[in-house]
Amino acid sequence: MEELTNRPESGVEARRRWSSRRTGTLVVAVSVVVSLYWWWPGITGRGESFDAAPAVMVVGGGQLARSEEKVLRRLREEGYSALWGGRPTDWCEAREMVSSAEISPTRAVVLHAPVASSDCADPEDLAGDIVGAVDAFGARAVLVIGLEVADRDDPVARALIDRGVAVVDPEALIGDPTAVDERVDCLWWDDCVFEGLNPGYVVLRDADGLTAAGQQRVARLIVATVQ
45-170+212-226: CATH homologous superfamily? Predict the structure, then answer.
């Protein structure tokens, strides 16, 4: 019995043990690589100094404010620290929120204000003040339009566009703001509704504005523009 217990390890057993160890090592290595790939943006700086210097600050009212959760989640999933800097009711409030911000976004300031009379200053002056404040952060301004009726024709929005800010216009993804309760085909990331044999659909706007599906599409386009 003692001889059987202490017999030398055979070549087959040694190879099996070596193969098992190699498999375990490969699994650990792959896990480390995947983890680094997922968290690398934060490791290299996008996620640092979250409170004082997030990568992205969003100053968005109206329909963009309805999308706050989706927008911030998508930005963070892509590795960008992000904060909501306010929900302005017009561009006068938006200017104040940007210029008086106590944080310093390092990559982008995303902007949207609902269509309203911004009579605190000339539209050109408002646009200039906003762009100047964003430039002072060392970030770039990203204007979101196409969320509400006539927001493309807003004088301040036009002045911002004339100054060369990046523009997010999701019309191709969410349609015209007047389209309500319309069923549209799913995209690969949508949480589709299936009824019977139909291939799946989503409703992007209801009587209150953007639905969760519409908000998700807007959020994805914002992230694509910030990158």
Answer: SGNH hydrolase (3.40.50.1110)
